[in-house]
TrEMBL record:
Protein name in UniProt: Phage tail protein
InterPro entries: CHP02241, Phage_T4_Gp19
Pfam families from the UniProt entry: Phage_T4_gp19
Protein's organism: Negadavirga shengliensis
Length: 151
C-alpha cells in the first residue's frame, strides 16, 4: 500500500463560469469560506427535564471570500461592479480547484448561484511597500465537492 500525503493548499485557481474573464482572473492569493454547517432546532419533550432533543434543520453555507492583488483589467470586477452599482445580478457558478504539481485538479468545489455581495480594496498607505489587495465576497446557495482519484 502506497503512502498518501495530503496535498498542500497553496496551488489552486478560481474560475467563474459565464463571465468574460481575463487570464489573471483565476489567480487569487487567498480563498476562504468553503464551509458548511447544519443549523439545528431544540425540542423539549413534555415530562422529560434531563435533556432536549436537538435535530438538524438545514445546511448553512458561509460566504466565499477571495483576496488578490488589484488588477487593472478584470472581468470579475466588471461583474461585481455591475451588480453593486446597477443592481444587475447575474449569478454564476464558481469553481475553486486545488491543483497538483502537474496542474491537474485534485479537488474541486463547485459553488452554485454565486453573486457578489461585497467588494473592497485594502488601505492605501504611503509608509508601506505592500501589494494593494482587493477582497471579493460572494454569496452562494450551496457547493458540491468532487475528488479526483489519487494516482
Amino acid at each position: 500500500m502506497a503512502f498518501y500525503y495530503p496535498p498542500p493548499g497553496f496551488h489552486f485557481k478560481v474560475e467563474f463560469l459565464d463571465i468574460q474573464a481575463v487570464a489573471d482572473d483565476i489567480l487569487f492569493q487567498n480563498v476562504s469560506g468553503l464551509e458548511v454547517s447544519l443549523e439545528t432546532e431544540s425540542i423539549k419533550e413534555g415530562g422529560e427535564n434531563r435533556f432536549e432533543h436537538v435535530i438538524p434543520t438545514r445546511s448553512k453555507y458561509n460566504d466565499l471570500i477571495l483576496k488578490r492583488g488589484v488588477l487593472k483589467d478584470s472581468g470579475v470586477i466588471k461583474w461585481c461592479r455591475q451588480a453593486i452599482e446597477s443592481f444587475e445580478f447575474k449569478p454564476t457558478t464558481v469553481l475553486v480547484q486545488l491543483l497538483n504539481e502537474e496542474h491537474e485538479i485534485l479537488i474541486e468545489w463547485r459553488l452554485f448561484h454565486a453573486w457578489p455581495k461585497k467588494w473592497s480594496v485594502a488601505e492605501l498607505n504611503a509608509e508601506q511597500s505592500a501589494v494593494l489587495v482587493e477582497t471579493i465576497e460572494l454569496n452562494y446557495n450551496y457547493f458540491k465537492v468532487n475528488h479526483s482519484e489519487p494516482t
